[in-house]
């Protein structure tokens, strides 16, 4: 009924009158009161010349979390924000990846906010992003931010993104990388998230005794990873504790986006129990936690991206040394054995490689794309023969090389959909090949491809397929045959590459046992 089949209409307000006041005048007065109550805490931050790159704000009913949300937005109000990337969880519709809206604008109590359609169009070309109209229509996590955005930051453009289940660190980094391509100096990232939901109502009761202090300790441990920022630590904390942080994947994407030396400041912390008298049906055994967090940095987003690209290019152009080659093979073998034997993704410290930290060169510590190929050796009578047993990788340089080797080795032995997971009885007959990739570069025509030298990435709408450099030459394909096979691999017809496609190439430095 809202015309979500087109991009002509706006997303209407759905929770006005229930989660917050539907009367715009009363709501404006309430928000102004929240802002004034937060002013002293924000001024105490004393950020000086640092930029506020991102904030975290809660999305509960305003009587519970309004003062906390106002503190986050007030911290960002002086940063000259012109566009807001709104990231939040989907509470009602399960899906994988990230959801975009097909609308042109979102309604707010104080006037509509226009969506940056160019950014949305580019994002939805990626397989991890998809338009999900109903998901956005029924979700409160972003709507609860809109009044604060419009009232405090003004008539800015927005890019609303909802996160489904995306608990793989590489997939989160890939989502973040796609978002980072669009971040400019006047952009603000807003993550909408409440924190621990505890008590019988939420099915989470980790503490046997009175919970006030233990709850705060749990929330502050979560914040310790968010403040650094530490993506791997945060995901490890989440898996270990099962903490009911509803915006966990949006928060994880934020950590993947932030520069390593940025800092998260906790401006305000409270729980719904602080307002328990407003809810007579609740005895206080249930609680939801709220945090206002602002991320500051000495530079703006354009500098962050330029600095990152400079580091990537400098290190990718450096070849692997002999010791680097030996080290990544040892890391891959140890990761393979650890995962197959335990079923757990190992930390580097669990690989039992003596003095590993001291052996990691600048090359191994810099981000690289990596593919891991596993081969199974055949019977002794035909020892020269081997067959593919798994191949998975990540094209973009999203992790330090040694971490990318660990993650993709685990994926190659357990997540290649063409094969069953590797068993312990196969370990002695498996060979490992590591392809360390250069940064992909766009080319204008398939005729620019160098068979045997270039790996190829074919993009067609939300479909993508990849061949490593060796594939075309091993099969003896021409450029046209290679592109036809890439089209088929993407689930399309052989001539699909000729119609509105985008082609990127990369090179690979191959290391094998």
Question: How would you characterize the overall build of this protein?
Answer:
The chain is α+β, with helices and mostly antiparallel strands. The protein has helices at 24-43, 62-76, 117-123, 133-138, 143-153, 169-180, 212-226, 231-241, 248-257, 301-316, 322-342, 362-365, 401-414, 469-475, 479-489; strands at 10-11, 51-57, 83-89, 98-100, 105-106, 113-114, 129-131, 157-163, 187-192, 197-198, 263-271, 287-297, 369-377, 386-394, 430-437, 441-443, 455-460, 463-467, 502-506, 508-512. The strands form 4 sheets. Strands 2, 3, 4, 7, 8, 9, 10, 11 and 12 form a 9-stranded mixed beta sheet that branches. Strands 14-13-15-20 form a 4-stranded antiparallel beta sheet, covered by helices on one side. A 4-stranded antiparallel beta sheet has the order 16-19-17-18. The radius of gyration is 25 Å and the shape is globular. The termini are far apart.
Architecture blueprint of SSEs:
Elements: E1 10-11, H1 24-43, E2 51-57, H2 62-76, E3 83-89, E4 98-100, E5 105-106, E6 113-114, H3 117-123, E7 129-131, H4 133-138, H5 143-153, E8 157-163, H6 169-180, E9 187-192, E10 197-198, H7 212-226, H8 231-241, H9 248-257, E11 263-271, E12 287-297, H10 301-316, H11 322-342, H12 362-365, E13 369-377, E14 386-394, H13 401-414, E15 430-437, E16 441-443, E17 455-460, E18 463-467, H14 469-475, H15 479-489, E19 502-506, E20 508-512
Parallel strand pairs: 1-5, 2-9, 3-8, 3-9, 4-7
Antiparallel strand pairs: 2-12, 4-8, 5-6, 10-12, 11-12, 13-14, 13-15, 15-20, 16-19, 17-18, 17-19
């Amino acid at each position: 009924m809202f015309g979500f089949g087109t991009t002509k209409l706006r997303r209407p307000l759905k929770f006005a009158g229930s989660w917050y006041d539907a009367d715009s005048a009363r709501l404006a007065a309430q928000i102004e009161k929240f802002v004034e109550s937060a002013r002293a805490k924000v001024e105490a931050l004393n950020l000086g010349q640092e930029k506020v790159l991102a904030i975290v704000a809660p999305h509960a009913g305003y009587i519970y979390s309004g003062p906390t949300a106002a503190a986050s937005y007030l911290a960002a109000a002086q940063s000259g924000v012109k566009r807001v990337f709104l990231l939040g969880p989907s509470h009602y519709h399960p899906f994988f990846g990230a959801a975009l809206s097909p609308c042109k604008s979102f309604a707010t109590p104080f006037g509509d906010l226009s969506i940056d359609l160019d950014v949305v169009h580019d994002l939805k070309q990626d397989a991890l992003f998809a338009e999900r109209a109903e998901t956005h229509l029924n979700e409160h996590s972003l709507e609860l931010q809109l009044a604060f955005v419009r009232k405090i930051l003004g008539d800015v453009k927005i890019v609303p993104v909802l996160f489904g289940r995306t608990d793989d660190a590489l997939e989160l980094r890939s989502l973040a990388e796609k978002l980072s391509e669009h971040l400019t100096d006047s952009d603000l990232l807003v993550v909408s998230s409440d924190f621990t939901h505890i008590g019988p109502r939420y099915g989470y009761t980790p503490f046997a005794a009175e919970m006030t202090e233990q709850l705060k300790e749990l929330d502050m441990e979560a914040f310790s990873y968010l403040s650094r920022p530490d993506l791997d630590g945060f995901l490890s904390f989440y898996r270990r504790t099962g903490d009911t942080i509803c915006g966990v994947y949006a928060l994880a994407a934020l950590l993947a986006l932030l520069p390593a030396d940025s800092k998260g400041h906790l401006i305000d912390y409270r729980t719904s129990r602080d307002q328990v008298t407003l809810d007579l049906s609740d005895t206080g055994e249930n609680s939801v936690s709220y945090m206002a967090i602002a991320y500051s940095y000495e530079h703006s987003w354009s500098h962050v991206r330029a600095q990152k690209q400079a580091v990537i290019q400098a290190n990718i152009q450096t070849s692997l040394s002999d010791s680097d080659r030996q080290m990544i093979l040892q890391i891959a073998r140890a990761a393979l054995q650890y995962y197959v034997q335990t079923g757990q993704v190992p930390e580097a410290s669990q690989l039992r490689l003596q003095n590993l930290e001291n052996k990691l060169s600048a090359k191994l510590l810099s981000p690289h794309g990596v593919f891991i190929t596993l081969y199974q050796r055949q019977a002794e009578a035909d020892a020269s023969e081997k067959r593919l047993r798994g191949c998975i990788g990540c094209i973009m340089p999203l992790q330090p090389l040694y971490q990318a080797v660990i993650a993709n080795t685990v994926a190659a032995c357990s997540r290649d959909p063409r094969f069953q997971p590797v068993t312990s009885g196969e370990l002695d007959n498996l060979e490992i090949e590591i392809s360390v990739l250069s940064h992909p570069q766009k080319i204008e025509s398939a005729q620019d491809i160098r068979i045997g030298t270039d790996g190829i990435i074919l993009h067609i709408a939300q479909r993508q397929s990849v061949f490593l450099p060796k594939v075309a030459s091993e099969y003896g394909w021409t450029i046209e045959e290679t592109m036809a096979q890439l089209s088929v691999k993407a689930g399309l017809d052989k001539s699909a590459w000729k119609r509105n496609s985008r082609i990127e190439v990369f090179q690979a430095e191959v290391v094998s046992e």
